[in-house]
Design a protein that fits this description.
alpha+beta; four-stranded antiparallel sheet; 9 helices; 4 strands
Amino acid sequence: MLKIKNTEVFGLERCVVASGNPMKIGEIDTIEPVTDRDWSRAHTLASAPAGSGHDNFLTGITVIADIQYPQYWSMQLQRYHWVQIVSSESKMHRLIKMMQSGEESFGPMVNYNTITTIKTWVEQYQHMADGEDKDWMFQNILNNLPMGFLLWFTISTNYAQLKTIYRQRRHHRLDEWQDFCDWIETLPRAKELITLDI
């Protein structure tokens, strides 16, 4: 399961106002108060098919969050072009210390024997002198980590990308996608701009 925390949303009201720019003449001011008419127009434009261009204002509504994920899920997330990994835990720098933190580094479906084997190798690694054997052991640990090994990263994305993800993943078989879509539904004005009663 995913853990998602520290969510921040930027530019929501400004982009809703900016959605009216095509019909304005002269100088544009997107720091105006949002009106009911702005929200209505934004909902109509957000209802347009993805890729039509009519919902482009959604690209300016930025979302940043911290997510704990299993490795197999992040590979699927990375297929989306406008989900940026701001920064992540580093297996190269911190793997051994992560392993010392206990079984919470592994998802609930990782086999006990796999966890035991990895922990044994980590203990062996810690008692080795620096050199080729230690480098080899580190590579061995890294190459045998299960796909259910858990890591944290911070992502940045936008409402347009989340609209696409929601449509493609709301009924996906992986629980992690259901967790992610549940989180999308909690974002401000998600019902009017992202999920649109799908």
